[in-house]
Amino acid sequence: MNKQTQTACIFGGTGFLGRYIVQKLAREGVRIKIATRTPQSAYFLRPYGDVGQIVPVMCDYSQASIENMIEGCDMVVNCVGILYEKGKNSFKKIHTDLPSTIAKACRKHNVARFTHISALGVNSAGSKYAKSKLKGEEKVLSHFEKATILRPSVVFGAEDEFFNRFAAMMRFLPFLPLIGGDKPVMQPVYVNDVAQAVHNVVFGDEVHQGRVYSLAGPEKMGFARIYGIIFEATNRWRPLVRLPFWLAKIQAFFLQLLPGAPLLTVDQVRSLQTPNILQEGQLSLTDLGITPTGHALIVPQYLKIFAKGQRGIDSAHSANA
Q1: What are 22-51's pLDDT values in tens digits?
Q2: Burial status of residue 52 (CB atoms within 10 A of its CB: 0-12, 13-18, 19 or more)
Q3: In this structure, which topology does domain 3-157+188-215 adopt according to CATH?
């Protein structure tokens, strides 16, 4: 089938990872429907394609609304996810129930390719986040057995909430915590590599269907290494203080009660107790024809705004420099 006659539906297209996926698919000429509660919030995606190629569509995420989105689509990608629970957005609702409903609709409307974004390590971690993600995978495959599951590690890139958040914290914290000592290990993966993985699954051989791929970068890191990367990129330094898991959970309990996005939650500390790395025998980026991108050429570029001496930053935080 000609790609220009195909239609893709993306759930979570306005998010950090979603916008990269939209770009990848748009370059192939497919028509793209962006499921969103507020279509105007997705207008920024339209320049990624030709006029009329990318269309934000109102979706209230009810079963009927989801089916309306998916009807007539050749491919569906779900990258909706949350890092913490707030209000009506529970892990179960977002990570388990929603993927289940999408998978059912894909089966009903004979979608050719369904790609579901999960998370690395969910099969071994004991957090509510991980358990809800794993249950979501199980639901997806039970309703649509040829779905492809992608499990990325912590995703980094210019708009990330990972390196950017820690770099921002350095401006007002006198020290940075080594949660669990330096035991937590992760393997950050570049957002463009994850988007390319989606592209290769969507347009690749049928062999990818029904498989689970673990997506990780080339380097395993503890928090000391992560902070070191930030120190070098920003020309700032903070002392590192070891914070046992039990104490981190106590602090997280109070931090998660604060308004706005919490710096840390108890469930996130629980997730950190399990290494978030590629395990031997798991299918990975290389099995999708992708060479993992390291942080060295990427992270320093977007952390420049936090560099010591950067105009507009140090003037407001000179006391912490």
Answers
A1: 999 999 999 999 999 999 999 999 999 999
A2: exposed
A3: Rossmann fold (3.40.50)
